[in-house]
Write a structure and sequence with these properties.
Blueprint (H helix, E strand, L loop, with lengths): L1 E2 L4 H14 L5 E6 L4 H4 L10 E9 L2 E4 L5 H4 L7 E6 L2 H16 L3 E6 L4 H9 L7 E5 L12 E5 L6 E4 L3 E3 L3 E2 L3 H7 L5 E2 L2 H22 L4 H8 L6 H16 L2 E7 L5
Parallel strand pairs: 3-6
Antiparallel strand pairs: 1-4, 2-13, 3-12, 3-13, 4-5, 5-8, 6-7, 7-11, 8-9, 9-10
Helix pairs in contact: 4-7, 7-9, 8-9
Length: 266
């Protein structure tokens, strides 16, 4: 087994950084990060897409398994080396359950995992600016619900859109290579909406409704999340977007990314 030797934060940072640096004609991807609160007062939101769809990324790490005694090579599930990303099993995979609830109203929600096997491979991809091309995006809407406390995995092989969710194995046909990300972004054109105050307020209200509903179902006392849920956003476009991003980060660990038409293209 080969592990990447990097953190989810490092992988996510590299993936998001590349999105901001890509020169797609008339297309812009803009991560909304709570750490940009200070920059909000400096007008960073003036560089957001003019019209956009909202994407959500939850970053996972993967192991590369190539030896014959690897479980899913040994049992014949795969005949070639494969990648395996672990889902959190803490408290019956609560994060996965929250992501599944979120994706019902926000279908552009994805697990994003790497397709490189070592830290050296990651460093080479980072400096070549092709971390994106060596990533796999798995739609949460295609995932199965988890109702137990067992360890669950997502497995996949390079070059194929199919993947399997374990422990009760179920094959799925749809995922995306990072090489196809521009195509995926452009395919969402019919979802693009003006990124104005109304858009930002609606995004916050939709998110808050989902979070409040799930917290009520869980019947657990998550004080920091409850405080974030009931905090009053600054009534501006930047204020609502940053509050939404902060709430989502705490709730299910996703990063909000707005993808749409570049300001310079209008």
């Amino acid at each position: 087994m080969s592990a990447t030797g990097i953190s989810e934060f490092t992988f996510g940072y590299a993936f998001l950084y590349e999105q901001t640096q890509r020169n797609w004609a008339g297309l812009k991807a803009a991560p909304i990060l709570p750490s940009l609160t200070q920059e909000a007062s400096l007008g960073w939101d003036a560089h957001l897409p003019t019209q956009a769809a909202d994407f959500y990324y939850q970053f996972k790490l993967s192991d590369y398994l190539e030896r014959p005694y690897a479980k899913y090579l040994r049992d014949g599930t795969y005949t070639t080396p494969y990648y395996r990303a672990s889902l959190h099993k803490r408290e019956n995979s609560r994060q996965h359950a929250r992501l599944r609830a979120h994706c019902k109203s926000h279908p552009l929600t994805f697990y994003v995992a790497p397709e490189f096997s070592t830290a050296t491979d990651f460093q080479a991809a980072f400096f070549a600016r092709n971390v994106t091309e060596n990533s796999r995006l798995i739609p949460l809407v295609e995932c199965d619900d988890i109702t137990d406390g067992e360890q669950h995995y997502l497995t996949y092989v390079p070059g194929s859109p199919t993947w399997i969710q374990h422990s009760e194995p179920r094959s799925h046909d749809r995922s995306y290579s990072g090489r196809d990300l521009e195509m995926l972004y452009r395919e969402t054109h019919d979802r693009w909406q003006p990124v104005d105050l109304s858009f930002a307020r609606r995004l916050f209200q939709e998110t808050a409704t989902v979070v409040e509903g799930e917290l009520s179902k869980e019947r657990r006392n998550d004080v920091p999340l409850a405080r974030a849920l009931h905090a009053t956003p600054e009534p501006t476009r930047a204020g609502y977007l940053l509050q939404t991003a902060d709430l989502l980060s705490m709730y299910c660990g996703v990063t909000l990314v707005l993808v749409g038409s570049s300001p310079s293209a209008t």
